[in-house]
Amino acid sequence: MASEKKQSFLHGAALLAAAVIIVKVIGALYKIPLGGIIGDSGFGYFTTAYDIYSVLLMISTAGLPVAMSRMIAEASSLGHYGQIDRTYKTARAIFLGLGAVGTILMTCFSHQLANFMNSPNSWAAIACLGPSALIMGQTSAFRGFFQGQGNMRPTSVSEVLESACKLVVGLGMAFILLKVTKDTALASGGAILGVTIGALVAVIYMYLSYRNYRREQPLTGGPVSSYGATAKKLLAIAVPITIGSAGLQIITLIDAKVVMAQLIGPAGFTQEQADGLKGIYNFAQTIFNLPCAFIPPITISILPAVTAQLTLRKYRQAQKLEESAVRITGLIAMPCAVGLLVLSGPVMALLRGYTGETLTTAANLLAVLGICVVFNSTVLLTNVLMQAHGYVYLPVMNMFIGGIIKVIVNYILVSNPGINIQGAPVGTLCCYLSITILNIFSMRKVIRNAPSITKNLARPALASVIMGAAAFLCSKLVSAVTSSRVIGCGLPILVAVAVYAVLVVVLKLVTYDDCMLLPKGEKIAKFLRISEKDS
User: From first to last of its 535 residues, what are the pLDDT tens digits of the chain?
Assistant: First the structure.
């Protein structure tokens, strides 16, 4: 039975990982040409709306799906099918209320929110995104229902459908509105309308999946708690998670306001110039988010594994799993960080066509954000490891401290006319670096046999530095021979991939236990010719 559960878990993890890859590819196909259509200012309006939406979405959906899936999993294992239905309906009602508030705020007060963010032309994008708050709440209820019963397929498919609709509708509406109205603000609203349509398609798919499930599975039987008791239990689990997730998002929203205020005020830029600089930075953030998106599948995989070992009081086995997760995180995050650092210029030149001083600014922004990939990934992992050990509030406090540091650093640096927007990624770096240090210190203090973070990141770091040197040298040689942006970016990346792949094997960065934490781990171990006795 244990083996079956493990295989089922790996299958679910594989589905989620595949969905992440597809969604990120679609996202790149959406945002990269979108920047070319609506320009840096329009992209800034687009991102401002997303900043507000992210905070509202985080507050309404960060903790509840986790609490919901946990309670449903408990009821399902006990055969209390009536309680599954009661939990779903209670959560759906809470989602409905929170989502309605978010939608009303964004649609009815779009101008006020835009002015608050020092980006008055963002009103159209904010209004068009407003209905998504209500829709995504209902989608999250469906996802929590299925995830609690170990079924990841509806979640994975709905995410892909949502992204695909966003791509087609968003780009189409942006192009049409810009051509018809010549108004960048309205075009950015049309672009973000694709997000709302995508969310609508996703919730329709989830509803159909839920309806089909209800026909096949019983949702009656067993003891059932009252709606009030169920709601209290849901909120008791969800509130701490929501505080941690939403806290940094709220600080990020405040930080975005501070950055714009400092650019327009002490730094001496006009509104149009500030919008353009913010658009460049937002695009760099989009690239930064790509590698970071591949860390959650690791955290999803490691959390139940560590929790099981701790429940059985097998602390050494738990530490072994945790250190494997650290190595896997390093294997992904380290090369991505170094790659963005050394190839920031070619990447920005290829994806956005920047030249001259604009390219220099964009490359500097992406280079610093590249370094942030390592610390952001470490924060995501260490947060989950502390949660697995029952320390829910420590990550919350550490993230708040890091967020405050970010605001302070940006307030000081961005106001300097010679630094301006280039101070923003430095603030982000200081934020994640401080949280990483605090998390590592906290783990060593409260966790018995805490995993070694720095030791297990050392070899991936060494391999990444060697890879980075090879990519940098290749980039310089290629730039001396050709001015092609495709070759200037693509060839160094291919060289980096080849060098890193060799170093993974030569330096023995992957163990059998590491492979077992990944989707299709047994096949990966077999391909790399790694056996259990080699660990």
Answer: 333 343 334 466 667 778 888 988 888 788 778 878 888 788 888 888 888 887 777 776 677 877 777 677 667 767 788 888 898 999 999 999 988 998 999 999 989 988 888 888 889 889 998 899 899 889 988 988 887 676 778 888 999 999 999 899 989 998 998 889 888 888 888 888 888 999 999 999 999 999 888 887 766 677 888 999 999 988 887 787 777 776 666 777 788 888 889 999 898 888 888 888 888 898 898 899 888 888 877 776 676 567 667 766 778 888 888 888 898 889 989 999 999 999 999 999 998 888 888 999 999 999 999 999 999 999 989 987 887 777 777 888 898 899 899 999 999 999 999 899 999 999 999 999 999 999 999 999 999 888 989 889 999 999 999 999 999 999 999 999 998 999 999 999 999 999 999 998 888 787 776 676 555 667 777 777 777 665 5
∠22-28-34 over CA atoms, to 5°?
140
| Structural domain count, the chain | 1
Structure tokens at 457: 């990141």
Domain for residue 92, yes or no? yes
Positive or negative, the Cα torsion across 415, 418, 421, 426? negative
Q: Give the dihedral of Cα atoms 307, 386, 377, 14; nearest 10 deg.
A: 10
Q: Is residue 15 part of a domain?
A: yes
Cβ 171 vs Cβ 192: under 8 Å: no
What is the 3-class SS of 114-141, one letter each residue? HHHCCCHHHHHHHHHHHHHHHHHHHHHH
Tokens of 400: 């708040």
The range of the structural domain enclosing residue 97 comes to 1-247
Q: Report d(CA 27, CA 509) in Å as an integer.
A: 31
Whether 130 maps to a domain, the answer reads: yes
pTM: 0.73
Distance CA(509)–CA(512), nearest Å, equals 10
Domain membership of residue 129 (yes or no) is yes
CA 494 vs CA 81, 92, 328, 497, 501: distances in Å: 52, 47, 21, 5, 11
- With contact defined as beta carbons under 8 Å apart, do 435 and 399 qualify? yes
